Fold these 3 entries.
Entry 1:
Amino acid sequence: MKPAADVPAATGGQPPAPYGFAEWRMAARVLLKAGVPPEAADWGRADGGDLFSGAPRAAGADDNGAEPSSPSSPTAPPGPAARIPRALMDMLQSAACFRAPDRWAFLYRVLWRWTHGEHDVQSPADPDGARLHGMVKAVRREEHDMHAYIRFRERPPEAGDPRFVAWFEPRHDVLPQVAEHFVARMGKRSWMIATPDASVLWDGATLHHAGPLMAGPAELEDQGEALWLTYYRSIFNPARVNAQLMQSHIPSRFWKNLPEGAIVPSLVSQAELGARKIGQVATVGRRGGATIRVSAEAAQPEREQPSRLDECRRCELWQYATQAVGGEGPKRSPIMVVGEQPGDQEDLAGQPFVGPAGKLLDQVFAQAELDRKSVYLTNAVKHFKWEPRGKRRLHKTPVQREIEACHYWLEKELAAVKPMVIVAMGATALKSVLRKSTVTLKDSLGKPIRHDGAWVVTIYHPSYVLRVPDEAAKHEAFAVMVKGLRLAQELLDRPDVAGEGNQA
């Protein structure tokens, strides 16, 4: 495009440099009034620079805007503004979003033909009409794809506005109209959609347009993404997967920016390697049927036990957890501390006692003068059991069958570590260690128990201390935990005298 000052008088004025449909419409109206035919209008070239470096001018004009005598001379009467049907104007506006080097010149040609009586230009049977319809269809398809495949990531509260951020790489200039769609959908929540060429920000009241503000999706982080991927894995049915159909429904260019795109290839590969054959075994097993009176042990066929914790399917908890959380500490330790189950932060990190309960346990270790690194830390149940509460995952106590299913892994840890003293934190850990569902925490606090050649000491679980509302009770529970760890250290030097302590 030429500078705005270069627009000749033959065009009837100097419209502002067009940067979108509204500016193109203004410049086209000026050219139509001046009678400038499409082949005589110079709309510039998209040769790496800005397409709109100035307004269009009549072809043949010199650098000063002077133009030889032509039907589009300055003496041509301006004439009334052309009246265009609303349907055609809507199509032109949609087609203006189609990225093509000659889009503005093409749209002007369509407009020129219509105003000169060639109304077939709006028909798909006309070459120009067919191209116009194709451009409109491609733009509307791109709008639909943005609605469907944009994934907003929620930022942490301390990051400030915008609360939700998304990245997309559109093929056409559809960001403004897509932004209006999300303004109506997202309410007063602040958000931003970034693309390689432009960005839009919604502050809850006003929509702001800006240039590119991000380099790519790598800048996006979402603490809830692990939960979403867990859900996606749980609903993925390998028995019904059709890779070709998935690729036809979701073009490959979208997968790279979708969170689930990172795990879909492995899920499809597992389906092709045999998971498809057993994908519905679990659901078939849950179907109702005749009750057979036989013990659970006798009904179970001989199966090869899992050799790795992340392969464990001994109960249903694995379906809802991010990952299994094993023990941590020296391979041989005189003291093993057993908790109940991993919490929300442990489930995401894959390590035991890294959340609020773990921080309080560190304080108990410090008061008891016991080095955490010298102790083997684990849980009776290896998967996080939870229930949804809004956007949060709240702890739910494991039932006895889940404790029994996971005792297989605790036995392996006990056999490998060979602790002299086992500290059971809470009732769930105590039931798992002693293999008794009738033992109570209240009756065993402060009373060492002999079990399978080791001492068992019972203390409160740190999460109990965090939940106690009364400060006096909180300090008392904390003191019980400290006292229990000190007793565990004393028992290391106590000989295994028959009849000493309680027997289990």
Entry 2:
Amino acid sequence: MIGGVFVYNHKGEVLISRVFRDSVTRATIDAFRVSVIHARHAVRSPVSNIARTSYCHVKKGAVWVVACTQQNVNAALVFEFLHKMIDLFSSYFGDITEENVKNNFVLIYELLDEILDFGYPQKTDSGILKTYITQQGIRSTVGLHVTCNMRTCTCTCTCMYMYCKFGLFYRSNSFFVDEFEIISLLSNIPGQVLSAHVSGRVVMKSFLSGMPECKFGMNDKLLIDRQAKPSTPEAQSLEQQLAKRSGHNPKSGVAIDDCTFHQCVKLSKFESERSISFIPPDGEFELMRYRTTNDITLPFRVIPLVREASRQHMEIKVVLKSLFKPTLNAQHVEVKIPTPPNTAGVKLISLKGRPRYKSGENAIVWKIRRFPGMKETQLTADVELLPSSTTESSKSKQQTRPPISMNFEVPFACSGLKVRYLKVFEPKLNYSDHDVVKWVRYLSKSGLYETRTQSNY
């Protein structure tokens, strides 16, 4: 599988080196430093093939985390392992920096021996590894009291609830639920959606005493459809009439295309009852991931208008509309408008935000710090073009114009998924579901959010 795992700094020096195959030599390590880190041109691909060796790398700040192999392995599996390894290191000693790697190199080597067996990935869950790896660098939790007893040893030996810790006690029990989504969109000038999908994940932070059983529910369409329906056709028609008068359907749900769960979720109950029941690990963990393509709420709409006044002059007008509630505000809004390669100068006028022309990127970058819902603003750009020959102008007209891209953050779920309930049951300790402080947060970010323009260069 994986021949070796290496950690480089920005100079190309090897901070961590763990070799699992005899085919990986010192020349293999130096090849990545010379061909990728010290390359004259920027390396955009995360996979590099050098001398019959494949290198999969992930860059975190000024640190390169690399896995090399000489076999035909699954690249997606290698990158999934690298990201899990980075998250594991972050849970132990914080950010992945050169100083932290040097200060915790003993811990890193011990973790590599546990999560890799002759190059094959093994357990990468921090909750499992922290039960028997107790090196320096582990961050202590304030207000946490852990007692080691015979029950803990029996749990570890029998592999029952290995992701949990026994003997946890908190003065105040709290539970945090974060729903993060990434929305991707491709639309055209009339506003028609060509493709759109949302990839989301539910991240939880559990600070609960004991080992409570939690039940988590969302407005999943399958769950709502399985609820009690009207017994007679008359009752069903009456319910539809009431829904039309109110203007919305209170039992409408969101169709999830596919989803994956954490190992703590009881899949048997989910398949039978469509309820997510689990015993949460202590601290932060990812409960589920999902993907949906139906009934997506678009946060923004971009309306571009390009007019070529002459061969040396072009007018670009971009109208930006927010389609979410006026009580919400989008942050870090950025619109990237491409310009022709022969652009000589640009004059910009905007009603909101700060637009700038970046000649190195051949684009106008329009940044808006905060944008409220149900608002509209526009940007006007007068572009001066350099004179070009007829052959070059004909070639440029044949080329399609790059789409307008956006980056943003909005405090709601674009997929429409919402948390319906979160119940905590702990019969052994003297606290109930009402004693647990619960917090829910929604945040959606832009993925590949693009709008095609009308004319060609």
Entry 3:
Amino acid sequence: MAERFRSFGLATPPAPRAIRADDAIALLRGGQAKEASLLAYGNGRSYGDSCQNRAGAVVDMRALNHIRAFNAESGVLEADAGVLLSDIIAHAAPYGFFPAVVPGTQFVTLGGAIANDVHGKNHHRRGTFGCHVESFTLLRSDGKTYRCSASDNRRLFAATIGGMGLTGLMLSASIRLMRVPSLDIVEKTTPFRNLGEFFDLAAAADQANEYAVAWIDQLAGGRNSGRGLLFTGNHAEHGSHAASRAGGSLSVPFQLPFNVLNRPFLTVFNAAYRWKKGRATAPGQTGYHSFFFPLDGVRDWNRLYGPNGLFQHQSVVPEEAARSVVPELLTAARRAGQGSFLTVLKRFGSIRSPALLSFPRPGYTLTLDFPNKGTATLALLGELDRITVAAGGAVNPYKDARMGAAIFAASFADWPRLEALRDPAFMSDFWARTAGSIDLRRRGVEAAE
């Protein structure tokens, strides 16, 4: 059973042990949960090891999957933590509501979206997912259930949003959805020849549109370096209110023994994608699946990276540094001979999250993913880390499977405040590798003194 509880990146081992949510709840309520023995596991869409706990067990949350209440006037929805965003979309769509923030897949749980404080293509308008959380219930190893909100148990509220599941077991949550005229999106594609053109377009695109994101041809060098497509969108005034919970009809039915997404394939794919998408520059109406969740159309697409999986690297750098730093990051990847299948660039706005630790901050964020080629890929990722933090930026922990303690501390100076509120029964491989390592070194220094 544990083989099912893997990171979506497939670059880390599966969880050695998994237990049911009911069993974890019984342990916690009885005060019997051992130190570092638990970690909630949603639907397995985290790329890194923040969803793994080799020291204990992961808790299968998908059984807690009921929508409890929905107010069709205010758009406030209450649901179990294991409910998928796809179920929330399907439930609320007939009433004219849609989640204010969605990530790149609809197959994440409500608890996972909160624990990772996910962001979408409209951070400049709506901030992160955590900005739209009304309250949640949290069960801790002291046996108590806490109702957390901006006014009740405020410190736990802030630490749990973006807290990677370390503050306890979230049982349910209430969120505010946004009213939309339809689920369909009026999308416009604007080609740009280089990153300078993109940066000239980005602020105006954000101001004029609900959604904005750019695709970059990461392999293009020379005078074509940084070329890509800017996608902008807004909900259509007249369109569909029908939603679907189903995944795509295509799938990768088994783990391939080799990496399909190699450099020759990516060169052809990037050229074809740019040609196909770049032709349609007039606004056109499209369904929400293809705009928000294109990869959901192919089940288990992560298997295309081969048996060693993939690493995703997402960074954010201040706006004033982006024009020099983003090209440097892309150049480093090309120099290393590594090809990124999905290269996404977008602008974060200034809306603050209520989270204690939240990755989005004003500036530009670049996402790259690479097949896991061992030490060569790890060396590249280390170089990308170095470039990012030297520019005053941060590396996303929610998608990471290998960053060091120093990079994490440089990205999130407030990590000790989360550690102070972490439930001792909860631990992740990510936290043990980063904050745990920092904490151990600090204790060693204190003991020596």
